Amino acid sequence: MNISGTGIGRGVAVGNILRMAPALEVPSDQLRPSTIEFESASSDVRRVLQEVSADLQKRADQAQRSKESSDAAPILAALSQMATDPALGQSIDGALQGGKSPERAVYEGFDEFEDKLRALGGYMAERANDLHDVGQRAIALLTNSPMPGIPQSDTPFILLADDLSPADTAALDMNKTLGIITIQGSPTSHTAILARSRGIVAIVGAEQAADLASGSRVIVNAASGTITVDPSDEELQQAELHKQHAAHARLLRGKPGSTKDGRHIALLANVAKPEDADTALEYGAEGIGLFRTEFMFMASSTAPSVEDQTKAYAKLLGRFPGKKVVIRMLDAGADKPLDFLTPENEPNPALGLRGLRTLRTHRQILDDQLEALARADAQTDADLWVMAPMVADEHEAEYFVTLGKARGLKQVGVMAEVPSIALMAQEVAQVSDFVSIGTNDLTQYTLAADRTLASVGSYQTAWHPAVLRAIKLIADAGNSHGMPVGVCGEAAADPDLALALVGLGVNSLSMTPLALDDVRANLAGHTMQEAQDLANRALSGEFYPQARH
Ligand code: PEP
Ligand code: MG
């Protein structure tokens, strides 16, 4: 039997299920015996919440000291504070005054707070589950019940849980955890974030896994998002092969990207904030191929100052002395709207003011960002390349390159995301220092299919021959003019597609750091001739139908 969910990463794990202890029963709504005074009930609750808070703080301190789980430390510390939040205490006291039992009052008090977080949606809604866990701990102490959480095991296991809280994950013994399956959870849930940052094989949102019993043997395949229950010998052999490939791929980490016959293809990382440099370096990135600078602008209702921007850019550049770092100018608009820049009333925002178009209408922001980049460049030794998003043709390319050069920036280029720039690639190659192809948008615009819309989601594959032909136009122009052409969209993270892109003539690939191992290994296993053969078959549309369905 196969169960599906959302796979995190690309790994495969084989092992036996270990279920997490079931959640506590919801405490009964009956009133407490009248002999128990409010004061004594309230002081019991406070003592228990103090205990839970202290325990969480202890775990936060432990997590902070451990390299593996330091990312859980701030969340645990925040939860420790929440446990003794005065507003929460008041809400619990309110229920106690109404005659509720201590455990019921705790349940209601937390429930109210969790609802508030859920109503905020997104990241905050995910934190509601974390808060729920804090309440459960308090209820377990009040009712002398076994603490919910990770069960103990002497042998390695695949953990099956409803969802995991930070407190659970901090307690996970990584030497025994082969993989994680959660019944709830989305790609942004805490489990998913943790799995990604530690490279744990995980599948989240696998609703049908709710019926799996402890001890069931399973294969967890994160790449395909499937859990195979009671696998056959053949399925086990395939999983073993997959694991061997992954282990082999890890061995190549630290080596530069290269085809089997020695053509160097720089393998770079996509990052969203300077701190991501750690992961990029850990996975052997040869530099940064796309730093999305939006994070700084999203944090407030005005543009960050030149000083703040300079600091952030210098922080990233400082981690890559002598190495290439491509920083992208602010890409506001469409799927990345900014209140203070993006018009509210555009009927088709993806076709409206975004990327360079937004920057041209807000020259101060454009100038400030270039100034900050020039200052950061002067302070550091990285090889800084700067590019603009959403550039339509050679005129816009020239406009941006001229501005960048006037600031003293050495490598100034453009992203290829709009089909028109591919059609004008020969002219663009005469004015731009480099082109980086954003296949996410290039696919969206070539196929006229909104990348954020699930109903047309199946169009979003760069295997479409029209997208590949557009890429070839750019690669050909680059190669005939000696202009570097890279790919920094999601397509570069797919090992097979990455090989086809190399066959089309691109000379660098930038991707989420976790994809680097597999792409590096696939390139190392094939010659340039094989890459070109694959590209030719792809250009004729051979792989598109399967990729789409
Ligand atoms: C792209 O469009 O492929 C790209 C890399 O940019 P973003 O995904 O940030 O729009
Ligand atoms: Mg884009």
TrEMBL record:
GO terms for biological process: phosphoenolpyruvate-dependent sugar phosphotransferase system. It comes from the Bacteria. Mg(2+) binds at E417, D441. Residues 156-225 form the PEP-utilising enzyme mobile domain. PROSITE patterns: PEP_ENZYMES_2. InterPro entries: PEP-util_enz_mobile_dom, PEP-utilizing_PTS_enzyme, PEP_util_C, PEP_util_CS, Phosphohistidine_dom_sf, PTS_EI, PTS_EI-like, PTS_EIN. Keywords: Cytoplasm, Kinase, Magnesium, Metal-binding, Phosphotransferase system, Sugar transport, Transferase, Transport. General (non sugar-specific) component of the phosphoenolpyruvate-dependent sugar phosphotransferase system (sugar PTS). This major carbohydrate active-transport system catalyzes the phosphorylation of incoming sugar substrates concomitantly with their translocation across the cell membrane. Enzyme I transfers the phosphoryl group from phosphoenolpyruvate (PEP) to the phosphoryl carrier protein (HPr). This is Phosphoenolpyruvate-protein phosphotransferase.
